[in-house]
Design goal:
alpha+beta, eight-stranded mixed beta sheet, two-stranded antiparallel sheet, 7 helices, 10 strands, globular
């Protein structure tokens, strides 16, 4: 099924697009409110929109560029927020392509800056996207990616989610009545499977069913892109 992706600045989203984005979010997660959706969207810079060949909105991913102050320097993070793709369109690479192109544009727009991708995950399939894009990332089942990446995770967590972030675990523990995975959805842990990455994610984020998010980090550098990410970005 054909899908078409594009990236739009958040202020340029019209009312109908915002309504459809909220409807998709509400369809895929529990505990969603219009107020929280609007507040979260306001804190983002761009939205990647995924449309069917009929023009219907079938997915989206919100993006923000965030400067983070570290003890000895300032770095720039691309923060990917809510990401939803309807089940019948999950085989498409359009969302991945638009995200990789966003990485490339950020490298162009901020030459010489130290760049990172920050992805927060309450679903194991979201976590698995890291391996599609990057060679080095954290947390990684092999243990690669040490203190330097966790320094970025801690700076991000404290800057954006100070009331909920736990530095010892790199988890954002929201109130239980907040946004959370629908049981039986694609992001829920399927205990009939023995996927090593699924089990690794569950061990690191045991509260994922209650909406707890794991902060993940990867350096955005051309030499850290996988071959797939380079192709998707157009290198």
């Amino acid at each position: 099924m054909k899908t078409i992706g594009c990236t739009v600045a958040v202020p340029d989203l019209n009312a109908d697009e915002r309504d459809q984005m909220f409807a998709l979010l509400n369809q895929h997660y529990l505990g969603v409110t219009r107020e929280e959706f609007a507040r979260d969207l306001l804190a983002k810079d761009h939205a990647i929109l995924l449309r069917s060949s009929d023009g219907d909105l079938v997915g989206f991913s919100t993006q923000a560029r965030v400067h983070l102050a570290l003890p000895d320097r300032t770095v720039l993070a691309v923060f990917s927020g809510d990401t939803i793709v309807c089940e019948q369109h999950r085989g498409s690479l359009e969302t991945a392509r638009e995200i990789c192109r966003y990485f490339r544009r950020t490298l162009t727009d901020y030459p010489g800056e130290e760049l990172y991708w920050v992805l927060i995950c309450k679903g194991w399939r979201t976590y698995r996207v890291l391996r599609l894009f990057f060679e080095e990332y954290a947390p990684k089942p092999t243990g690669v990616g040490g203190a330097a990446l966790w320094e970025i995770a801690n700076a991000f967590g404290r800057a954006r989610y100070a009331d909920f972030y736990q530095p010892s675990t790199r988890l954002i523990e929201f109130p239980k009545q907040g946004q959370r995975i629908r049981p039986g959805s694609a992001e829920a842990i399927d205990r009939r499977r023995s996927d090593p990455e699924m089990l690794f994610f569950e061990r690191l984020n045991p509260g994922h069913e209650n909406g707890t998010e794991l902060v993940c980090v990867a350096p955005i550098r051309l030499d850290n892109f996988t071959a797939a990410a380079r192709r998707l970005a157009g290198y």
